[in-house]
Structures are given as structure tokens and as C-alpha cells.
Amino acid sequence: IDSQGSSIRGRLVSRSHAPQQIHSSRMNDRDNNQSKWWRISIPQAGAIGKERVMSTLKVNCLRQFQPYHYFIDRDTNTGVFFVNDQRDADMLKRANRKIEIQNFGTLSIMVSQASCPVPLLDEDLRRHFRDFICNRRFNAQTFQLNLSNLADDEELSALGIYPQLNKQAFVRDVVDIITKNLQMTRQLDLGSNNISNLYEFRNLQLNNLEQLSLASNQLKSFEELVHLKQLTHLNHLLLKDNSLISSNNKRSISRDDLISIIQQKLPQLKRVDDIDLPTKIGFGVDNEIIHLPKSAPHCVPQDMQSFLAKFIDEYYRLFDTRGRSELHACYQDSCMFSLCIAPTESSMVPTKSYKYGPLIYESRNLKKIFDDNKRTTLLRHGKTDVLDFLRIKFPLTKHDGKSFHVDVFSTANNRAIFTVNGLYREIDQGVNGPVRSFQRTFTCSQTPAGVLIVADHIMIINATESQVLNMTRSTPPASSSTEPSSSKMMESQNVPGPSIDIQTQMIHRFSQQSGMNIEYSKLCLSENDWNYERAAQKFQDCLKMNVIPPEAFKKP
Predict the structure, then answer these.
(1) Distance between CA atoms of 4 and 114, rounded to whole angstroms?
(2) What is 29-75 written as a DSSP string?
């Protein structure tokens, strides 16, 4: 390790950044300071200019202050940054409406307390952070990347970056920078960073990584280690001074048992902390690769495919009709219906942040509703009650038949129980309405009047970003996928339209003129049947209503 140092901003910074011992008093100071943050918001900073606002503040304030995580909120055009000194917060608060900027009047400065800075880095901060990691923390001769104890790095603080490796959004940026710029890393030190989970590290792709230090963090479960399984050349892992080690020691779990647990999660390891792991004993047989049979896209008995295709097609045609009055013929008089809305706050998969409005109060989610009377009230009984709910309270929809996935559970006793999974768009708000992913379970019974629905349960959740992008542009209201092919699908695929080359030209032209990325430009054009003028008008309308998501303007 290179022990030479260089003077940076008046202090000695080691090029190798050798791990420093963290004293308990220092750790306590850091923990106490975590809640001492103030959020500074400046409306219209985006219109004035990010750098112009900051330079004006620093020129007009009586004392210098250090802003952290300065960014422009794209939805509100508000400039936001954070300070961790109450004197700075009070000074900025007193400057409210007292600093004038030519052509924009006086600056409105709003100050509020915050638990910590927003853990996101804008393009400027991300570039500075990348340069800091690559130039200050990476040793190109030994291929060592030392990111230990980032919170106490004064140089990083001077850049206006407060590292939060206990926040997934920040870890995501760190992992992305390492994977894209430092593929050659062989040793990575992430010690003393308050890391509590390793989920985002599942995307860390370092094929040459041999040693990883996670010492002195807040890891509590060995299950977190499975997120490192893609590091196939990792042979040395440091875990000392983590709760998962200390708590198990208190419970008198033997060292051999701990080693066994770790080896089960990461069988490629040869050493943990200062312990050499025993060689795993295997059987002297040839390793045979077992190829699992390909999973069937649907589970529908052959003799039911024709019936279900017709039933589902007809049902969703009626369901997507305004008023839904014709659904009356589909339900039995004593039928039941329930709705469950699944929360996405803890989901690891990025979803579109669409709100449910009043419908959320009709959700009979048993993990949220504990009162028996409320549960009974939310369970709809009888055809009248069910249809009133579907007609009045359930939003107007358009289902994507090509997204349907059908599974049959049972066909015993003249009853069929099956589920339909798929996507639909709420069209009360037009073509840009929320896209939902749903699972609907039907129980149908054979009656003298035909096949009627006895029980109907629907669970809905916000669609993922990829599902929204892949939403079919011109699918019939319902087109079941229980059969390998469908005449209606073929008809929809044969609708005349521009050639692929012309479509590509239209997409690139629309992207250049609108500022949207290729994916959203294609989506806008396809939803308007490749009518360029209509798509442009729809874009202008949506822009005025501020309903276009920010990711539509993100370009690679």
C-alpha cells in the first residue's frame, strides 16, 4: 500500500486511505449529528440558475456555509440543499426576502428541519463523487478501492456530499460508479459506513474482486450475504464488528456453526476475517447440469381453453364498457366480491407512483384491516351490491389482453376456479391514466342460466416501470392468452401503419423536438396511431397539465 500523502485543502490525505480506527466517542458524535440537519428550499432556483443562486447566497451571507446535496427539484423547479450547522440555518432564514437577483426580485428562502439530506446525487455531484472515488480512493497499482469511513472524509464534505450507505438510493449510485469505472478492483473496503443491508450490492459486478471488507457496519442477518453471490472470485470476506457476528456470539452459537452458515450463503469463500475456512467436502461424481423443463406460460386444461378464451374475452369486453351495465348477466344472485390493494412502499422493484384516490378506502387488505366489522363491510354480497361497486366506485378501464396470463386451479363439482393476471389502464384521466397490474380470481358455477360468477376477488398493485413501457398500444379490451393463437390478436397485429424505418425516423424526430427519450417518444406516437400531429398535440396538452413523468426526459 502506498503510504505517501499529499496536502489537500490544508490537511494531509493518504492516497491509499488506510482504514482508521473509529473511536466510540467519534461514532457517537456522528450519530448525534445525523438529526441536526436543515433543509433549505429556494423556489424558482431552477429558472434563475442553480450556480447563480448559490454564488449570490455566498456573496451576500455574512459567513461562509457548506451546502450539501444541492439539486433542483424537476417537478417544482425549487432549489434544495442541506446544512448541518444551526448558525448557517438561522443566517439563511434571516436572509429570506432580503437578497435581490436582477430580473427575478428577492429570493424566497424557506428553512425547515430534516433528519438527513436527500440521498440522491444530481449530475454535478455525481461527477464530483465519481472523480473523488476514482482519483482519491483507488490505488491503481494494487487495485485497492478503499471506501471505508466516508462520513468522516473532509474532502468529500467540502464537495457538498454527505455519504449515506445506509440508504439504498445512495448505495445504488456508489455501485453504479464502481461497476462502470473500476472493473479492475481486486480489494474493496466498505468498512465503518453504517451499512445495514446489502440488497443494492446485488448489482455490483466485479469479476476480479477477491477481498471485500464490510467490517464495523450494522449488518444483522446472514441472509444479506446472498446479495454477494455474483462475486464468484471473492475468497476473503471481513465481517468483524457487525451485529450478525456479535449477537450470535452472545447466543453462544459456535464458531463452526457461524462458518457453516456463511459458507452456505457464499460457498466460494476461503477466508472470513482471520479464519481460514475448511475445504468443502464433495462427492467424487461428475457434475451433471440439470436443465429444468421450460415453464408453461399458462396452466389451462385442453378441454377448457376454448371456453375460457371466450368467457374472458366477453367478460373484459363488458367490463371495459362505460357504465358496465351488461355485467349483470355474468354474476349469480348470491355472488361475492372483494378488492385488495397491495402497498408498494417496501417493494424492491421500481414502480410507477400512481395514487389510488378514493378506491384505497374500499381495499379489504387483511394485512391492513384488522377490525372484523370493517372486513365484513368491505366484502360485497349479492349481485346488486357487487355491480353497484363495479359501476360506481371502480375506475373506468382498458385492459391489455396481450398481458393476460391464465391459470386454472380447480374444475371439480361443476365449478371452475381460475386466475387472470395482467395489466389495465385507468382511462378516466385519458391516455395517460395510471397503469395497474392485477390478479383476479374467479369462481364460476354451471347453472341452468349458464356459467355464472359466484365469487370474484381482485388484487391490484401499481405496475412496474417496464410494464408501463411495454403496455400494448392498441389491444382489444380483452383478448385471452389461454390459446397459443387468436384471430383477434392477428387482426390487431395487421393494422396498417408506417413501416419500421419510417417509425424509427418519426421516433427520433419526436424525441429531438419534445426532449423526451426514445422509449417515451415511441409510446406517445404509438398511442396516437403514429399520427405525428396528434401525438405532438397530446404531448403539449400533457405538458401543460404537468402529467408527464420526470423519467420521460431522462436520456442515457
Answers:
(1) 39
(2) HHHHHTT-EEEEEETTHHHH-HHHHHHHHHHHSSS----EEEEE-TT
Residue 499 is which amino acid?
Answer: S
Give the model's pLDDT for residue 48: 92
3-state secondary structure (DSSP) of residue 122: coil
CA dist., res. 301 & res. 142, Å (int): 61
- The answer to whether 151 touches 72, Cβ cutoff 8 Å, is no
Q: Which of 394, 376, 404, 419 is nearest to 327 (CA)?
A: 394
| Residue 127 domain-assigned (yes or no) | yes
Query: Is-contact 404 422, C-beta < 8 A?
Result: yes
Q: Is residue 537 part of a domain?
A: yes
Same domain for 249 and 376: no
**Residues 463/436, Cβ–Cβ less than 8 Å:** yes
For the chain of 556 residues, list the mean pLDDT of each consecutive stretch of 10.
34 38 40 69 92 93 92 89 94 93 91 87 90 94 94 90 90 93 95 93 93 93 92 93 72 75 90 84 55 67 83 93 90 95 60 75 88 91 94 91 89 89 83 85 89 95 80 45 36 50 82 85 84 83 77 79
Beta bridge partners of 446: 451
Residues 145, 269, single domain; the answer is yes
Number of domain units in the chain:
4
The per-residue DSSP string of 219-232 comes to ---GGGGGGGTT-T
Does pTM surpass 0.90?
no
235 lies in a domain? yes
Which of 114, 137, 155 delimits the end of a domain? Answer: 114
> Which grid cell is 169?
438510493
What are the DSSP calls for 145-163, one per residue? Answer: EE-TTGGG-HHHHHTT---
Domain match, 370 and 435 both: yes
* CA proximity to 303, closest of 411, 201, 203, 210: 411
Say whether both 416 and 473 belong to one domain.
yes
At 281 the pLDDT is 58
